[in-house]
Amino acid sequence: MPIELICLDADDTLWHNMRFFDATQQALVDMLRPFAEANVAQEALEACEIRNLKLYGYGAKSFTLSMIETALELGGDDVSARVIADILAAGRELLAHPVELFDGIEDTLDALADRGRLILVTKGDLFHQEAKLAASGLGDRFSGIEIVSDKKRETFETLFARYGVVPDRAIMAGDSMRSDILPALDAGAWAAFIPQELAWSHEQATAPSDHARFRQLTQLADLPAWIDAIG
Q: Where do runs of H (alpha helix) occur along the chain?
């Protein structure tokens, strides 16, 4: 049965993302050295991020708020206005980082477009994701842009219905097992996992074992060949 709808994640699937978050996290750790060891600061930040997801969602703005909260949690009244200002500056720099595409992405998208409609399915801050997509120059290659608060089974079921495709004629590709792969499979679609370095632990999960509609790929450029094999 041929694939008709090809859904792609954006961050760390089309362009680099976590390397910038990782650098910003390291900057925060350095700022907080008077108050906590590096591993303590990192663990406190991650716990704060996860705790705040239901309030702020995903993205650089949420991350910046969690950095400020972590600083106050670890340093209390000893955290100076200068430190808060530096955290805000790091957050602004994170929001303004250049969009760096993975090698060969344009050619890969062209090859995928020959095989089905391309839909971008990404989560995070609406304004920031729209800005990154515009800066990437890739927007015109997609038939639809879906910026969602989270990716769950219901998210994909709604998406497939919106684009008029039965789930087993759709495929999702991305770097997050928790957000891209498992919910797409649960919704009845195919799913290609393309792991990247520096993956956030919150996005990690156990890969399905011996699942006919799942494949782990080395790079997005391998996806057209798997789609051909499915068809």
A: 18-31, 38-56, 60-75, 81-95, 105-113, 126-136, 153-162, 182-186, 223-230
Give the SS3 label for residue 191. strand
The neighbour count for residue 104, using CB atoms within 10 Å, is 12
pLDDT in tens, 85-100: 999 999 999 999 899 9
What domains appear along the chain, each with residue ranges and CATH number? 5-16+100-230 (3.40.50.1000), 18-95 (1.10.150.240)
Q: Which two tokens stand for residue 130?
A: 């729209």
Going from the C-alpha of 18 to that of each of 15, 99, 228, the distances in angstroms are 10, 12, 30
- Environment class of 195 (CB within 10 Å of its CB; exposed 0-12, middle 13-18, buried 19+): middle
pLDDT tens, residue by residue, 177-227: 999 999 999 999 999 999 988 666 667 778 888 899 999 999 999 999 999
Q: Which residues pair with 208 in a beta bridge?
A: none
Pull the structure tokens for residue 68.
């400020």
